[in-house]
Design goal:
Blueprint (H helix, E strand, L loop, with lengths): L2 H11 L10 H24 L4 H9 L1 H14 L10 H9 L47
Length: 141
């Protein structure tokens, strides 16, 4: 996904979604595009002598910004309240998320769910006597 896809994902599909987890890419690309748009609108607003463009945009993306920050904290298995701690929240936002599911939901990267590769592609399909692996025997690749 490119940065604009992550931005659209956060703003359009997960506008006020405070549950679940957000990958580092989702968080940082959203922030990058959002800050870029805010700077652009502020410059345009200053040129047009209407300085509210940047402020109106910032107000419009306030909820998704808070939501993606909370989901980012969830990805490192921390409460969303940790987003309020100044330096520590930056460290957590840069930290790789918990592998596999945690108390806030499944791994957004897909990864391991229970020690098997059941959530990924079925590499066992077509081998052996069955029509594919079911994920229940633990013999999947």
């Amino acid at each position: 996904m490119n940065p604009l896809d992550y931005f659209k994902l956060v703003v359009l599909q997960k506008y006020a979604e405070f549950n679940g987890r957000a990958r580092r890419a989702e968080y940082w690309y959203f922030l990058l595009v959002s800050v870029g748009i805010s700077i652009l609108l502020t410059v345009v607003g200053n040129v047009l002598h209407f300085g509210l463009f940047g402020s109106l945009y910032s107000l419009a993306v306030l909820v998704p910004t808070i939501a993606v920050a909370i989901r980012r904290m969830h990805d490192v298995d921390k409460s969303g309240w940790f987003a309020l701690i100044p330096i520590y929240n930056l460290i957590l936002a840069c930290t790789e998320g918990t592998r596999g599911p945690n108390q806030y939901g499944p791994d957004p990267k897909g990864g391991l769910t229970d020690g098997t590769f059941g959530s990924g592609p079925d590499f066992g399909a077509g081998f052996g006597t069955g029509s594919g692996s079911t994920g229940t025997t633990g013999t999947n690749l």
